[in-house]
Write a structure and sequence with these properties.
It is built from 18 helices and 10 strands. By secondary structure, the chain is α/β, with parallel strands linked by helices. Among the domains are: about 120 residues; about 90 residues, no CATH class. The strands form 2 sheets. It has an 8-stranded mixed beta sheet with strand order 5-4-1-2-3-8-7-6, sandwiched between helices. It is globular, with a radius of gyration of 23 Å.
Length: about 475
């Protein structure tokens, strides 16, 4: 009997990070190892913030997360020359990583927990060989100070991306928790991003009782990359590592992430989005599994919380503190391709992130502070072509599916059929708490009902009607 099943071998990549600060790679088509540049991570800023050097285990942890991110970035998922291009998403990645304590990282419970976590983020097959680190300790490990020991109480450590969600969430949390010392951790990959983050936090701090401490951590390669993987699904692991290391160093056992529920759960917009073709960077399951990994690695019971899981982005932006800071909204960025290299137009305006941003600011009554788009869907003077509206169409299609499920006689059952990913979210988050399971289902139904209402009122939808009539 013949079979029509196509066996597609995943793209395979090997990386060696044991040679100083160089990245050595060997592809599946060549036995020659090539240097892909030198890497860096400015984790000295974490050590200096708390007047102490990073523990060797934490320095290892940051290295591991950085190397995983670099391997992900340097390993294209698909070869366009392959006739099986559409099937090649998952990869096989083999890494050699030097650490201070290879015996810890090689323990089965740590190693397998790491591999499972990475698979959830990236859907790749990760194989990591941990070897003894013989490098000279870097400055973050040997940081010493005569200043007093850090002892603020209470302290709240949160990730700060510079996006609209982190801006809105931080602004209201600092207002509502004035007795807390906030520590905001940012991963920084370009100058424009770093400058915007600093300007936003400066504005938030202006009337705060206890100004937030900002720890920007620059990271990456010191030279450009000719060919890279754009999805970079491991960034969530790197960012949460920087945040968790900072939290534990600051004496906290929890990390906060501010992201609206629609973006955090990130349901697929159409049938072509399967698995990690939709990012899981701040998915509730990712936060739960990352917290379990941190607990296993450090021995410290650890939590990662998103206080805005059941709010839309528009609801986050309606807070009185955000409205008082509305002039600073222009400093935030949401675009998948930020920064677009065009003067005064750093965001594209037509990706799903830009559309969700525009929808939310409109829903919060803040459209007057929404500008800087290459394609401005709110302008009557600009022609918007079919290609630029593709993602508006798929978001509209998703919203109509959500609306149909909500209006059915059994909304949750309809949701389960349309969006099976929600079953996994509720099951894993509420694994041992049946009453919380019912509460979460109700909260999710309210969240998506609110989102559909906001979407149906979105002014940009008129472009779809015009295009349909023109067709």
């Amino acid at each position: 009997m013949s079979s029509n099943v196509v066996q597609v071998r995943p793209n395979e990549y090997e990386f060696d990070f044991s040679r100083g600060d160089q990245v050595l790679a060997q592809s599946q088509v060549s036995e020659i190892a090539a240097s892909l540049g030198r890497y860096f991570v400015a984790d000295l800023r974490i050590a200096r913030a708390f007047y102490r050097g990073l523990e060797p285990l934490f320095a290892d942890w940051i290295d591991v997360a950085l190397f995983i991110y670099l391997a992900d970035r340097l390993s294209p998922r698909r070869r366009r020359t392959s006739r099986h291009f559409s099937l090649q998403w998952g990869r096989c990645l083999q890494l050699k990583i030097p650490v201070h304590h290879p015996e810890v990282w090689s323990r089965p419970e740590i190693y397998e927990s790491l591999r499972r976590l990475l698979y959830f983020f990236t859907e790749d097959d990760w194989h990591i060989e941990f070897i003894q680190n013989h490098k000279i300790p870097r400055p973050s490990e040997s940081q010493k100070s005569l200043l007093p020991i850090w002892k603020p109480n209470p302290v709240r450590v949160a990730l700060y991306s510079g996006g609209l969600d982190s801006f809105a969430g931080t602004a209201q949390q600092i207002t509502e928790l004035p007795e807390h010392q906030f520590v905001l951790v940012s991963g920084v990959t370009n100058t424009r991003q770093g400058e915007a983050q600093r300007a936003q936090i400066k504005a938030i701090n202006k009337d705060a009782r206890r100004p937030a401490i900002h720890i920007p951590v620059d990271y990456g390669l010191r030279q450009g990359i000719e060919r890279e993987e754009r999805s970079q699904r491991s960034r969530g692991f790197l960012f949460m590592t920087l945040g968790a290391v900072t939290a534990v160093t600051a004496g906290a056992n929890e990390l906060y992430i501010y992201e609206n529920g629609i973006g955090a759960i990130n349901l697929p917009y159409d049938g072509s989005q399967v698995g990690t073709s939709s990012t899981r960077a701040v998915n509730p399951i990712a936060l739960l599994r990352m917290a379990k990994f941190v607990t296993a690695l450090t021995g410290i019971p650890f939590r990662i919380e998103n206080p805005f899981l059941f709010q839309t982005k528009a609801e986050m932006c309606r807070h009185s503190k955000v409205k008082r800071l509305s002039e600073q909204i222009k400093l935030t960025f949401s675009c998948d391709g930020f920064p677009i290299r065009k003067k005064n137009q750093p965001q594209c305006g037509v990706c799903t992130s830009c559309l969700l941003r525009r929808l939310s600011l409109e829903g919060a009554g803040l459209s007057n502070h929404d500008s800087g788009y290459l394609h401005d869907l709110s302008s009557e003077q600009v022609f918007i072509g079919r290609k630029q509206l593709d993602l508006l169409w798929v978001m509209d299609w998703q919203a109509q599916r959500l609306g149909a499920a909500l209006s059915s006689s059994e909304p949750w059952q309809a949701f389960r059929q349309e969006f099976p990913a929600l079953i996994d979210v509720v099951s894993e988050v509420c694994k041992t708490n049946e009453s919380r399971r019912e509460e979460m289902r109700s909260a999710l139904l309210r969240l998506y009902s609110q989102y559909v209402s906001e979407w149906n009122s979105f002014s940009a939808r008129k472009l779809l009607t015009r295009q349909a009539l023109a067709a």
